[in-house]
Structure to design on (224 residues):
C-alpha cells in the first residue's frame, strides 16, 4: 500500500516512458536527420520531466510510514534504472546520428563540415557530461535509498529493544513476587515446625505422667 500521490506519479511516469519509447522507435526507423533531432530534443525534455517526477516520488517515500517505505524505495530504484536506460538509448541514438551526419558531410564535401564536426564534438562532450551527472545522481539516490532502509532497520531495532525491556520488567516483577511468596512460605513452614515440636513435647510429657501414674498405682497396689 502506498500514498495516492505516489501511485499517481508512478502512473504518470509509466505513461511518459511509453511516449518516450514511441519517439525513440520513430527515431530508429526514420532517416530524416532534422526530424530525428527534434524528436531527440523532445525526448530529452521528457527525461527532465521524468527526473522531476522521480524526485517527487522520493519525497513521498521519505514522508511515508516505515511499513511501506521499503517497497516504495524499491519501486523508485526500479524507475530510476529505467530512466537511466532511456537516457543511455537517447545518447546512443544522438551519437550515432551525429556520426552518420558527419560521414555524409565528409563524403559529400559540402562546406561547413568542420563546423558540423565541432558541433558534434560539443554534443559528444555534453552527452558525456550528462551521462556523468546521471551516474552521479543515480549513486546519490541509491545512497539515499540505503540510508532510508538503514533508518527503517534502526526503527525496528529500537521497537524490538523496547519490547524486550518491557518483557524484562515483567520478568523482574514476577521474580520479586515469587521471592515474596517464598518468604511467606518459609514463615509458614517455621510456624508449622514449631507447632509440631510443641505437640511432640506435650505428648512426651503426657506419656511420662501416665507412666509415673501407672508406676505409682502398681507400687501402692503391691507394696503397701
Amino acid at each position: 500500500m502506498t500514498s495516492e500521490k505516489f501511485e499517481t506519479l508512478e502512473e504518470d511516469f509509466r505513461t511518459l516512458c511509453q511516449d518516450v519509447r514511441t519517439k525513440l522507435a520513430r527515431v530508429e526507423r526514420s532517416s530524416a536527420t532534422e526530424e530525428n533531432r527534434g524528436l531527440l530534443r523532445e525526448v530529452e525534455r521528457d527525461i527532465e520531466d521524468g527526473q522531476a517526477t522521480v524526485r517527487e516520488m522520493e519525497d513521498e517515500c521519505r514522508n511515508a510510514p516505515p511499513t511501506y517505505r521499503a517497497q516504495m524505495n524499491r519501486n523508485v530504484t526500479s524507475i530510476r534504472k529505467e530512466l537511466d536506460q532511456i537516457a543511455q538509448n537517447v545518447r546512443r541514438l544522438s551519437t550515432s546520428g551525429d556520426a552518420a551526419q558527419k560521414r555524409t558531410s565528409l563524403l559529400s564535401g559540402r562546406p561547413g563540415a568542420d563546423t558540423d564536426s565541432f558541433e558534434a564534438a560539443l554534443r559528444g562532450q555534453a552527452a558525456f557530461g550528462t551521462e556523468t551527472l546521471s551516474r552521479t545522481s543515480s549513486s546519490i539516490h541509491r545512497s539515499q535509498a540505503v540510508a532510508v532502509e538503514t533508518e527503517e532497520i534502526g526503527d525496528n531495532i529500537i521497537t524490538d529493544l523496547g519490547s524486550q525491556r518491557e518483557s524484562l520488567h515483567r520478568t523482574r516483577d514476577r521474580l520479586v513476587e515469587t521471592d515474596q511468596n517464598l518468604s511467606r512460605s518459609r514463615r509458614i513452614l517455621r510456624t508449622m515446625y514449631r507447632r509440631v515440636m510443641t505437640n511432640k513435647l506435650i505428648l512426651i510429657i503426657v506419656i511420662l505422667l501416665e507412666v509415673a501414674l501407672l508406676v505409682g498405682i502398681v507400687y501402692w497396689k503391691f507394696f503397701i
Notes: DSSP finds four helices and no strands in the chain. The domain at 4-171 is CATH 1.20.58.400 (Methane Monooxygenase Hydroxylase; Chain G, domain 1). The radius of gyration is 46 Å.
